[in-house]
Amino acid sequence: MQPPRMLMIEANEGRSVMRNKRKARDQKMYGRMLALWLIAVGAGAVSLYTAKNALAAPPESLAVPPESLAVSLESLAVSPESLAVSTESGAASELALQEFGAGAESIQEPGENVGTAGEKESAGLPDAGPEEDSAPLVVVDAGHGGIDWGASAGDIHEKDINLDIALRVRDKLTELGYEVYLIRTGDLYLEKEARVAQANRLQADAYVSIHQNLYEDPQICGLETWYDGSDAFRDSERLARLVHKYAARSTGAQVRELRSDADFCVTGKTRMPACLIETGFLSNPEECALLVTPEYRDRLAEGIAKGIRLFFEPRTMYLTFDDGPTAENTMMVLDVLKERGICATFFLVGENVRKNPEVARRIAAEGHTIGIHCDCHSYDLLYESAEGYLEDFERAWQTVYEVTGVKAKLFRFPGGSINAYNKEVYGEIREKMEERGFVFFDWNASFGDAVKDPQRETLIQNAVESTLDRKKVVMLAHDTVRQTALCLDELLDQLPEYEMKPLTEYVKPIVFENHETAG
Questions:
Q1: In this structure, are residues 389 and 429 in contact, taking their beta carbons and an 8 Å threshold?
Q2: Labelling 5: which of 24, 149, 165, 204 has CA 20 to 30 A away?
Protein backbone atom coordinates (compact mmCIF):
# COMPACT_ATOMS: atom_id res chain seq x y z
CA MET A 1 0.00 0.00 0.00
CA GLN A 2 1.45 3.35 -1.04
CA PRO A 3 1.43 6.25 1.44
CA PRO A 4 -1.29 8.91 0.92
CA ARG A 5 1.30 11.51 -0.10
CA MET A 6 2.53 9.32 -2.97
CA LEU A 7 -1.03 8.56 -4.09
CA MET A 8 -1.80 12.29 -4.13
CA ILE A 9 1.29 13.03 -6.25
CA GLU A 10 0.36 10.30 -8.71
CA ALA A 11 -3.22 11.56 -8.91
CA ASN A 12 -2.01 15.10 -9.63
CA GLU A 13 0.36 13.82 -12.28
CA GLY A 14 -2.49 11.87 -13.86
CA ARG A 15 -4.69 14.97 -13.97
CA SER A 16 -1.84 16.95 -15.51
CA VAL A 17 -1.39 14.33 -18.23
CA MET A 18 -5.13 14.40 -18.99
CA ARG A 19 -5.11 18.21 -19.21
CA ASN A 20 -2.21 18.12 -21.65
CA LYS A 21 -3.98 15.49 -23.76
CA ARG A 22 -7.16 17.55 -23.85
CA LYS A 23 -5.20 20.66 -24.79
CA ALA A 24 -3.42 18.86 -27.64
CA ARG A 25 -6.70 17.39 -28.88
CA ASP A 26 -8.45 20.77 -28.77
CA GLN A 27 -5.60 22.42 -30.68
CA LYS A 28 -5.83 19.72 -33.33
CA MET A 29 -9.59 20.17 -33.62
CA TYR A 30 -9.31 23.94 -34.05
CA GLY A 31 -6.58 23.37 -36.63
CA ARG A 32 -8.95 21.17 -38.59
CA MET A 33 -11.70 23.76 -38.36
CA LEU A 34 -9.37 26.44 -39.70
CA ALA A 35 -8.28 24.19 -42.53
CA LEU A 36 -11.90 23.47 -43.46
CA TRP A 37 -12.62 27.20 -43.44
CA LEU A 38 -9.64 27.83 -45.68
CA ILE A 39 -10.80 25.15 -48.09
CA ALA A 40 -14.27 26.67 -48.07
CA VAL A 41 -12.78 30.10 -48.98
CA GLY A 42 -11.05 28.51 -51.94
CA ALA A 43 -14.26 26.74 -52.88
CA GLY A 44 -16.16 29.99 -52.82
CA ALA A 45 -13.68 31.63 -55.15
CA VAL A 46 -13.80 28.78 -57.61
CA SER A 47 -17.59 28.42 -57.50
CA LEU A 48 -17.95 31.87 -59.14
CA TYR A 49 -17.31 30.06 -62.38
CA THR A 50 -18.65 26.98 -64.02
CA ALA A 51 -16.01 24.45 -64.98
CA LYS A 52 -16.45 25.38 -68.62
CA ASN A 53 -16.09 29.10 -68.10
CA ALA A 54 -13.21 28.59 -65.70
CA LEU A 55 -11.13 26.95 -68.39
CA ALA A 56 -11.43 30.04 -70.52
CA ALA A 57 -11.16 32.63 -67.78
CA PRO A 58 -8.13 34.94 -67.64
CA PRO A 59 -5.77 33.86 -64.88
CA GLU A 60 -5.77 37.14 -63.06
CA SER A 61 -9.53 36.97 -62.57
CA LEU A 62 -9.18 33.86 -60.43
CA ALA A 63 -6.24 34.91 -58.30
CA VAL A 64 -6.97 34.99 -54.60
CA PRO A 65 -5.10 37.80 -52.83
CA PRO A 66 -3.44 36.46 -49.71
CA GLU A 67 -4.57 39.37 -47.60
CA SER A 68 -8.23 38.50 -48.22
CA LEU A 69 -7.85 35.27 -46.29
CA ALA A 70 -7.16 37.11 -43.02
CA VAL A 71 -4.92 34.29 -41.81
CA SER A 72 -1.19 33.73 -41.93
CA LEU A 73 -0.38 31.69 -45.03
CA GLU A 74 2.98 30.82 -43.55
CA SER A 75 1.29 29.20 -40.58
CA LEU A 76 -0.71 27.02 -42.96
CA ALA A 77 2.29 26.04 -45.08
CA VAL A 78 0.73 27.60 -48.21
CA SER A 79 2.74 30.06 -50.22
CA PRO A 80 1.03 32.95 -52.02
CA GLU A 81 2.61 31.68 -55.24
CA SER A 82 0.67 28.45 -54.93
CA LEU A 83 -2.57 30.42 -55.23
CA ALA A 84 -1.72 31.99 -58.54
CA VAL A 85 -3.21 30.56 -61.75
CA SER A 86 -0.72 28.91 -64.04
CA THR A 87 -0.96 30.07 -67.67
CA GLU A 88 1.04 27.15 -69.03
CA SER A 89 -1.87 24.73 -69.25
CA GLY A 90 -5.27 24.88 -70.94
CA ALA A 91 -6.81 23.45 -67.75
CA ALA A 92 -4.90 25.82 -65.52
CA SER A 93 -7.83 27.83 -64.28
CA GLU A 94 -9.66 24.83 -62.87
CA LEU A 95 -6.48 23.70 -61.14
CA ALA A 96 -5.45 27.12 -59.92
CA LEU A 97 -7.12 26.79 -56.54
CA GLN A 98 -6.59 23.07 -56.14
CA GLU A 99 -4.10 23.86 -53.37
CA PHE A 100 -7.16 25.10 -51.54
CA GLY A 101 -8.75 21.76 -52.26
CA ALA A 102 -11.75 22.44 -54.51
CA GLY A 103 -13.07 22.58 -58.02
CA ALA A 104 -16.13 24.37 -59.29
CA GLU A 105 -18.94 21.84 -59.62
CA SER A 106 -17.94 19.05 -57.22
CA ILE A 107 -16.88 21.05 -54.19
CA GLN A 108 -18.79 20.29 -50.99
CA GLU A 109 -19.34 22.58 -48.09
CA PRO A 110 -17.36 21.31 -45.10
CA GLY A 111 -20.54 20.19 -43.39
CA GLU A 112 -21.39 17.98 -46.35
CA ASN A 113 -17.96 16.53 -46.96
CA VAL A 114 -17.08 15.61 -43.40
CA GLY A 115 -19.14 12.74 -42.07
CA THR A 116 -19.72 12.36 -38.33
CA ALA A 117 -21.69 9.94 -36.21
CA GLY A 118 -23.83 12.68 -34.75
CA GLU A 119 -26.06 15.23 -36.42
CA LYS A 120 -24.15 17.12 -39.12
CA GLU A 121 -24.42 20.73 -40.07
CA SER A 122 -25.64 21.14 -43.64
CA ALA A 123 -23.17 23.94 -44.26
CA GLY A 124 -20.45 25.94 -42.61
CA LEU A 125 -18.00 24.90 -39.95
CA PRO A 126 -18.40 22.03 -37.52
CA ASP A 127 -19.36 22.68 -33.91
CA ALA A 128 -16.63 24.74 -32.29
CA GLY A 129 -16.72 22.74 -29.07
CA PRO A 130 -14.61 19.57 -29.41
CA GLU A 131 -15.98 16.51 -27.67
CA GLU A 132 -14.11 14.98 -24.74
CA ASP A 133 -13.10 12.04 -26.93
CA SER A 134 -13.08 13.37 -30.49
CA ALA A 135 -13.37 10.81 -33.27
CA PRO A 136 -10.41 10.17 -35.59
CA LEU A 137 -10.48 12.01 -38.89
CA VAL A 138 -9.95 9.77 -41.92
CA VAL A 139 -9.21 11.19 -45.34
CA VAL A 140 -10.51 8.97 -48.15
CA ASP A 141 -9.08 9.74 -51.56
CA ALA A 142 -10.84 8.51 -54.70
CA GLY A 143 -7.92 8.37 -57.12
CA HIS A 144 -7.89 10.22 -60.47
CA GLY A 145 -11.01 12.16 -61.60
CA GLY A 146 -12.08 14.73 -64.14
CA ILE A 147 -9.79 14.75 -67.17
CA ASP A 148 -7.74 11.95 -65.62
CA TRP A 149 -9.65 8.71 -66.20
CA GLY A 150 -7.03 6.43 -64.72
CA ALA A 151 -7.16 2.85 -66.00
CA SER A 152 -9.94 2.02 -68.46
CA ALA A 153 -11.56 -1.04 -69.96
CA GLY A 154 -13.79 0.14 -72.80
CA ASP A 155 -16.23 2.62 -71.30
CA ILE A 156 -15.42 1.53 -67.75
CA HIS A 157 -13.16 4.08 -66.10
CA GLU A 158 -11.16 3.75 -62.92
CA LYS A 159 -12.05 7.22 -61.67
CA ASP A 160 -15.75 6.30 -61.45
CA ILE A 161 -15.18 3.03 -59.59
CA ASN A 162 -12.79 4.74 -57.18
CA LEU A 163 -15.32 7.43 -56.33
CA ASP A 164 -18.18 5.01 -55.79
CA ILE A 165 -16.12 2.85 -53.42
CA ALA A 166 -14.85 5.96 -51.59
CA LEU A 167 -18.40 7.22 -51.03
CA ARG A 168 -19.37 3.84 -49.62
CA VAL A 169 -16.33 3.81 -47.32
CA ARG A 170 -17.29 7.27 -46.08
CA ASP A 171 -20.82 6.17 -45.29
CA LYS A 172 -19.70 3.07 -43.41
CA LEU A 173 -17.09 4.92 -41.37
CA THR A 174 -19.56 7.68 -40.57
CA GLU A 175 -22.00 5.10 -39.23
CA LEU A 176 -19.19 3.81 -37.01
CA GLY A 177 -18.63 7.25 -35.52
CA TYR A 178 -15.62 8.48 -37.47
CA GLU A 179 -15.09 11.84 -39.10
CA VAL A 180 -14.45 11.37 -42.81
CA TYR A 181 -13.16 13.86 -45.36
CA LEU A 182 -13.44 12.95 -49.04
CA ILE A 183 -10.80 14.50 -51.28
CA ARG A 184 -13.36 14.62 -54.06
CA THR A 185 -17.08 13.95 -54.04
CA GLY A 186 -17.63 14.31 -57.77
CA ASP A 187 -15.85 14.01 -61.11
CA LEU A 188 -13.09 16.48 -60.34
CA TYR A 189 -9.40 16.41 -61.16
CA LEU A 190 -7.00 17.38 -58.40
CA GLU A 191 -3.24 17.33 -58.41
CA LYS A 192 -1.68 14.80 -56.08
CA GLU A 193 0.09 17.57 -54.22
CA ALA A 194 -3.23 19.31 -53.56
CA ARG A 195 -4.71 16.11 -52.14
CA VAL A 196 -1.80 15.74 -49.75
CA ALA A 197 -1.93 19.43 -48.79
CA GLN A 198 -5.60 19.11 -47.84
CA ALA A 199 -4.97 16.08 -45.62
CA ASN A 200 -1.98 17.69 -43.95
CA ARG A 201 -3.83 20.95 -43.27
CA LEU A 202 -6.70 18.99 -41.71
CA GLN A 203 -4.21 17.15 -39.50
CA ALA A 204 -5.98 13.93 -40.42
CA ASP A 205 -5.33 10.74 -38.51
CA ALA A 206 -5.23 8.40 -41.52
CA TYR A 207 -5.22 8.62 -45.32
CA VAL A 208 -6.48 5.89 -47.65
CA SER A 209 -6.29 6.29 -51.42
CA ILE A 210 -8.47 4.01 -53.57
CA HIS A 211 -7.41 2.90 -57.05
CA GLN A 212 -7.80 0.20 -59.69
CA ASN A 213 -5.09 -1.66 -61.57
CA LEU A 214 -4.26 -2.55 -65.17
CA TYR A 215 -1.79 -4.98 -66.70
CA GLU A 216 -0.96 -6.31 -70.13
CA ASP A 217 -1.60 -9.90 -69.01
CA PRO A 218 -5.40 -10.32 -68.62
CA GLN A 219 -4.90 -13.29 -66.29
CA ILE A 220 -3.47 -11.11 -63.52
CA CYS A 221 -5.99 -10.20 -60.82
CA GLY A 222 -6.27 -9.42 -57.13
CA LEU A 223 -5.61 -6.80 -54.50
CA GLU A 224 -2.42 -4.80 -54.08
CA THR A 225 -1.76 -2.35 -51.26
CA TRP A 226 1.13 0.10 -51.07
CA TYR A 227 2.72 2.10 -48.27
CA ASP A 228 5.94 3.97 -47.60
CA GLY A 229 8.10 1.51 -45.70
CA SER A 230 10.93 4.01 -45.32
CA ASP A 231 9.00 5.90 -42.63
CA ALA A 232 8.34 3.70 -39.60
CA PHE A 233 7.06 6.55 -37.43
CA ARG A 234 3.67 6.98 -39.14
CA ASP A 235 2.60 3.33 -38.68
CA SER A 236 1.57 3.19 -42.34
CA GLU A 237 2.51 -0.47 -42.57
CA ARG A 238 -0.07 -1.50 -40.00
CA LEU A 239 -2.76 0.56 -41.72
CA ALA A 240 -1.87 -1.00 -45.08
CA ARG A 241 -1.89 -4.52 -43.66
CA LEU A 242 -5.32 -4.03 -42.13
CA VAL A 243 -6.89 -2.48 -45.22
CA HIS A 244 -5.30 -5.18 -47.38
CA LYS A 245 -6.34 -8.06 -45.12
CA TYR A 246 -9.94 -7.08 -44.58
CA ALA A 247 -10.64 -5.97 -48.16
CA ALA A 248 -9.46 -9.42 -49.25
CA ARG A 249 -11.46 -11.16 -46.53
CA SER A 250 -14.69 -9.32 -47.35
CA THR A 251 -14.47 -10.00 -51.09
CA GLY A 252 -12.61 -13.29 -51.39
CA ALA A 253 -10.33 -11.57 -53.89
CA GLN A 254 -6.93 -12.99 -54.65
CA VAL A 255 -4.34 -11.49 -52.33
CA ARG A 256 -1.41 -10.09 -54.26
CA GLU A 257 1.43 -8.00 -52.95
CA LEU A 258 1.63 -5.77 -49.93
CA ARG A 259 4.28 -3.33 -51.15
CA SER A 260 6.46 -1.24 -48.87
CA ASP A 261 8.28 0.51 -51.71
CA ALA A 262 5.52 2.94 -52.65
CA ASP A 263 7.00 6.00 -54.33
CA PHE A 264 3.74 7.93 -54.46
CA CYS A 265 3.06 11.48 -53.37
CA VAL A 266 -0.04 10.47 -51.41
CA THR A 267 1.83 7.83 -49.39
CA GLY A 268 5.17 9.61 -49.05
CA LYS A 269 4.27 13.25 -48.40
CA THR A 270 1.31 12.83 -46.09
CA ARG A 271 2.08 13.42 -42.43
CA MET A 272 -0.29 10.74 -41.15
CA PRO A 273 -0.44 6.96 -41.64
CA ALA A 274 -1.24 6.44 -45.32
CA CYS A 275 -1.74 3.65 -47.82
CA LEU A 276 -2.95 3.17 -51.37
CA ILE A 277 -5.06 0.15 -52.27
CA GLU A 278 -5.55 -1.16 -55.81
CA THR A 279 -8.81 -3.06 -55.40
CA GLY A 280 -8.67 -5.00 -58.68
CA PHE A 281 -7.51 -5.27 -62.28
CA LEU A 282 -9.76 -3.78 -64.96
CA SER A 283 -7.65 -5.72 -67.46
CA ASN A 284 -8.94 -8.99 -66.01
CA PRO A 285 -12.42 -9.64 -67.51
CA GLU A 286 -13.76 -11.56 -64.51
CA GLU A 287 -12.53 -9.04 -61.96
CA CYS A 288 -13.70 -6.12 -64.07
CA ALA A 289 -17.17 -7.66 -64.22
CA LEU A 290 -17.21 -7.77 -60.43
CA LEU A 291 -15.91 -4.22 -59.99
CA VAL A 292 -18.79 -2.70 -61.95
CA THR A 293 -21.39 -4.23 -59.61
CA PRO A 294 -22.66 -2.28 -56.58
CA GLU A 295 -22.63 -5.43 -54.46
CA TYR A 296 -18.91 -6.08 -54.97
CA ARG A 297 -18.01 -2.44 -54.45
CA ASP A 298 -19.95 -2.48 -51.20
CA ARG A 299 -18.04 -5.54 -50.01
CA LEU A 300 -14.79 -3.78 -50.85
CA ALA A 301 -15.91 -0.71 -48.92
CA GLU A 302 -16.94 -2.88 -45.99
CA GLY A 303 -13.50 -4.47 -45.83
CA ILE A 304 -11.63 -1.17 -46.18
CA ALA A 305 -13.77 0.43 -43.48
CA LYS A 306 -13.25 -2.52 -41.14
CA GLY A 307 -9.50 -2.35 -41.65
CA ILE A 308 -9.52 1.36 -40.82
CA ARG A 309 -11.66 0.76 -37.75
CA LEU A 310 -9.29 -1.91 -36.43
CA PHE A 311 -6.39 0.49 -36.99
CA PHE A 312 -7.93 2.87 -34.45
CA GLU A 313 -9.71 0.29 -32.29
CA PRO A 314 -7.38 -2.71 -32.11
CA ARG A 315 -8.21 -5.89 -30.32
CA THR A 316 -5.96 -7.00 -27.47
CA MET A 317 -3.55 -9.92 -27.45
CA TYR A 318 -1.41 -11.13 -24.58
CA LEU A 319 1.52 -13.12 -25.92
CA THR A 320 2.59 -15.73 -23.38
CA PHE A 321 5.57 -18.07 -23.49
CA ASP A 322 5.90 -21.18 -21.35
CA ASP A 323 8.74 -23.46 -20.25
CA GLY A 324 11.73 -21.13 -20.65
CA PRO A 325 14.12 -19.60 -20.46
CA THR A 326 16.53 -21.22 -22.90
CA ALA A 327 19.90 -19.90 -24.00
CA GLU A 328 19.13 -19.58 -27.72
CA ASN A 329 15.41 -19.74 -28.45
CA THR A 330 14.29 -17.37 -25.70
CA MET A 331 16.95 -14.89 -26.76
CA MET A 332 15.63 -15.04 -30.34
CA VAL A 333 12.11 -14.37 -29.08
CA LEU A 334 13.34 -11.45 -26.98
CA ASP A 335 15.16 -9.98 -29.98
CA VAL A 336 11.94 -10.00 -32.06
CA LEU A 337 9.91 -8.46 -29.25
CA LYS A 338 12.50 -5.76 -28.60
CA GLU A 339 12.68 -4.82 -32.28
CA ARG A 340 8.91 -4.39 -32.35
CA GLY A 341 8.60 -2.67 -28.98
CA ILE A 342 6.35 -5.44 -27.60
CA CYS A 343 6.15 -6.61 -24.00
CA ALA A 344 4.96 -10.18 -23.45
CA THR A 345 4.53 -12.59 -20.54
CA PHE A 346 6.94 -15.42 -19.70
CA PHE A 347 5.87 -18.25 -17.40
CA LEU A 348 9.24 -19.55 -16.28
CA VAL A 349 10.45 -22.93 -15.11
CA GLY A 350 12.66 -22.65 -12.03
CA GLU A 351 15.26 -25.20 -13.11
CA ASN A 352 15.65 -23.40 -16.46
CA VAL A 353 16.08 -20.06 -14.69
CA ARG A 354 18.94 -21.58 -12.70
CA LYS A 355 20.52 -22.84 -15.93
CA ASN A 356 20.06 -19.54 -17.80
CA PRO A 357 19.97 -16.73 -15.22
CA GLU A 358 21.20 -14.08 -17.66
CA VAL A 359 18.24 -14.76 -19.95
CA ALA A 360 15.80 -14.48 -17.05
CA ARG A 361 17.38 -11.18 -16.05
CA ARG A 362 17.02 -9.88 -19.60
CA ILE A 363 13.33 -10.79 -19.60
CA ALA A 364 12.84 -8.70 -16.46
CA ALA A 365 15.06 -5.84 -17.61
CA GLU A 366 13.16 -5.41 -20.89
CA GLY A 367 9.83 -4.94 -19.16
CA HIS A 368 8.16 -8.29 -19.75
CA THR A 369 5.86 -9.79 -17.16
CA ILE A 370 7.27 -12.82 -15.38
CA GLY A 371 5.00 -15.53 -14.05
CA ILE A 372 5.68 -18.93 -12.52
CA HIS A 373 5.10 -22.14 -14.45
CA CYS A 374 6.73 -24.69 -12.18
CA ASP A 375 10.14 -25.74 -10.91
CA CYS A 376 10.29 -29.27 -12.32
CA HIS A 377 8.15 -29.86 -15.40
CA SER A 378 6.95 -33.35 -14.47
CA TYR A 379 3.17 -33.73 -14.40
CA ASP A 380 3.29 -36.90 -12.31
CA LEU A 381 5.33 -35.23 -9.57
CA LEU A 382 3.57 -31.87 -9.73
CA TYR A 383 0.05 -33.19 -9.41
CA GLU A 384 0.69 -36.04 -6.99
CA SER A 385 -0.77 -33.86 -4.25
CA ALA A 386 -1.69 -30.24 -3.56
CA GLU A 387 1.17 -30.02 -1.04
CA GLY A 388 3.64 -31.29 -3.62
CA TYR A 389 2.46 -28.67 -6.13
CA LEU A 390 2.82 -25.88 -3.58
CA GLU A 391 6.34 -26.97 -2.64
CA ASP A 392 7.36 -27.02 -6.31
CA PHE A 393 5.82 -23.59 -6.84
CA GLU A 394 7.69 -22.17 -3.85
CA ARG A 395 11.04 -23.37 -5.20
CA ALA A 396 10.36 -21.81 -8.60
CA TRP A 397 9.10 -18.54 -7.07
CA GLN A 398 12.16 -18.23 -4.85
CA THR A 399 14.52 -18.91 -7.75
CA VAL A 400 12.90 -16.25 -9.93
CA TYR A 401 13.04 -13.73 -7.09
CA GLU A 402 16.70 -14.40 -6.31
CA VAL A 403 17.76 -14.22 -9.97
CA THR A 404 15.59 -11.33 -11.24
CA GLY A 405 14.29 -9.54 -8.15
CA VAL A 406 10.73 -10.05 -9.43
CA LYS A 407 8.05 -11.03 -6.94
CA ALA A 408 5.84 -12.92 -9.35
CA LYS A 409 2.07 -12.65 -8.87
CA LEU A 410 0.97 -14.69 -11.89
CA PHE A 411 1.21 -18.39 -12.57
CA ARG A 412 0.14 -20.96 -15.12
CA PHE A 413 -0.63 -24.58 -14.41
CA PRO A 414 1.55 -26.91 -16.51
CA GLY A 415 -0.91 -28.44 -18.96
CA GLY A 416 -3.50 -25.81 -18.17
CA SER A 417 -5.60 -25.40 -15.05
CA ILE A 418 -7.68 -28.46 -15.88
CA ASN A 419 -5.93 -31.43 -17.42
CA ALA A 420 -5.78 -35.20 -17.30
CA TYR A 421 -3.19 -35.17 -14.48
CA ASN A 422 -4.69 -32.79 -11.92
CA LYS A 423 -8.38 -33.69 -11.79
CA GLU A 424 -8.13 -34.86 -8.20
CA VAL A 425 -6.13 -31.95 -6.82
CA TYR A 426 -7.02 -28.99 -9.07
CA GLY A 427 -9.69 -27.54 -6.79
CA GLU A 428 -7.50 -27.65 -3.69
CA ILE A 429 -4.47 -26.20 -5.49
CA ARG A 430 -6.51 -23.35 -6.95
CA GLU A 431 -8.09 -22.49 -3.61
CA LYS A 432 -4.77 -22.38 -1.77
CA MET A 433 -2.99 -20.40 -4.50
CA GLU A 434 -5.76 -17.81 -4.62
CA GLU A 435 -5.72 -17.55 -0.83
CA ARG A 436 -2.06 -16.57 -1.16
CA GLY A 437 -2.95 -13.81 -3.65
CA PHE A 438 -1.71 -15.46 -6.84
CA VAL A 439 -3.57 -15.19 -10.17
CA PHE A 440 -3.48 -17.88 -12.83
CA PHE A 441 -4.04 -17.68 -16.57
CA ASP A 442 -5.01 -20.30 -19.11
CA TRP A 443 -5.26 -19.41 -22.80
CA ASN A 444 -7.82 -19.17 -25.62
CA ALA A 445 -5.47 -19.34 -28.63
CA SER A 446 -2.32 -21.27 -29.31
CA PHE A 447 0.62 -21.81 -31.67
CA GLY A 448 0.04 -25.53 -31.20
CA ASP A 449 3.82 -25.89 -30.89
CA ALA A 450 3.90 -28.54 -28.15
CA VAL A 451 4.21 -31.28 -30.78
CA LYS A 452 6.98 -33.28 -32.37
CA ASP A 453 8.67 -31.59 -35.36
CA PRO A 454 6.46 -28.47 -35.63
CA GLN A 455 6.49 -26.60 -38.96
CA ARG A 456 6.63 -22.80 -39.23
CA GLU A 457 3.72 -22.51 -41.66
CA THR A 458 1.53 -24.72 -39.48
CA LEU A 459 2.37 -22.76 -36.32
CA ILE A 460 1.46 -19.46 -37.98
CA GLN A 461 -1.78 -20.90 -39.30
CA ASN A 462 -2.64 -22.35 -35.89
CA ALA A 463 -2.04 -19.07 -34.13
CA VAL A 464 -3.99 -16.93 -36.60
CA GLU A 465 -6.97 -19.25 -36.90
CA SER A 466 -7.25 -19.97 -33.19
CA THR A 467 -7.81 -16.28 -32.37
CA LEU A 468 -11.30 -16.60 -33.89
CA ASP A 469 -11.28 -12.80 -34.16
CA ARG A 470 -11.80 -12.50 -30.41
CA LYS A 471 -11.44 -9.06 -28.90
CA LYS A 472 -9.25 -10.42 -26.12
CA VAL A 473 -6.75 -13.19 -26.77
CA VAL A 474 -4.28 -14.90 -24.49
CA MET A 475 -1.92 -16.66 -26.90
CA LEU A 476 0.02 -19.72 -25.77
CA ALA A 477 3.48 -20.41 -27.17
CA HIS A 478 6.64 -22.10 -25.97
CA ASP A 479 9.93 -20.23 -26.17
CA THR A 480 11.73 -23.56 -25.88
CA VAL A 481 10.61 -24.46 -29.43
CA ARG A 482 12.99 -23.40 -32.20
CA GLN A 483 10.32 -23.02 -34.88
CA THR A 484 8.26 -20.80 -32.60
CA ALA A 485 11.17 -18.40 -32.27
CA LEU A 486 11.78 -18.53 -36.03
CA CYS A 487 8.18 -17.83 -37.05
CA LEU A 488 7.31 -15.19 -34.44
CA ASP A 489 8.23 -12.16 -36.54
CA GLU A 490 6.23 -13.36 -39.54
CA LEU A 491 3.27 -14.25 -37.35
CA LEU A 492 3.13 -10.78 -35.81
CA ASP A 493 2.91 -9.31 -39.31
CA GLN A 494 -0.25 -11.34 -39.81
CA LEU A 495 -1.94 -10.00 -36.68
CA PRO A 496 -2.10 -6.24 -37.32
CA GLU A 497 -5.55 -6.04 -35.74
CA TYR A 498 -4.12 -6.86 -32.32
CA GLU A 499 -2.34 -4.62 -29.87
CA MET A 500 0.15 -6.68 -27.88
CA LYS A 501 0.22 -6.22 -24.10
CA PRO A 502 1.75 -8.01 -21.12
CA LEU A 503 -0.46 -9.72 -18.58
CA THR A 504 -0.82 -8.18 -15.13
CA GLU A 505 -2.70 -9.21 -12.02
CA TYR A 506 -5.38 -6.68 -12.98
CA VAL A 507 -6.25 -8.35 -16.30
CA LYS A 508 -9.33 -10.56 -16.07
CA PRO A 509 -7.97 -14.10 -16.44
CA ILE A 510 -8.84 -16.52 -19.22
CA VAL A 511 -9.72 -19.73 -17.36
CA PHE A 512 -10.70 -23.15 -18.67
CA GLU A 513 -14.26 -24.02 -17.76
CA ASN A 514 -14.08 -27.81 -17.76
CA HIS A 515 -11.81 -30.77 -18.42
CA GLU A 516 -12.65 -30.80 -22.12
CA THR A 517 -11.18 -27.37 -22.94
CA ALA A 518 -7.58 -27.79 -21.84
CA GLY A 519 -4.98 -27.86 -24.62
A1: yes
A2: 24
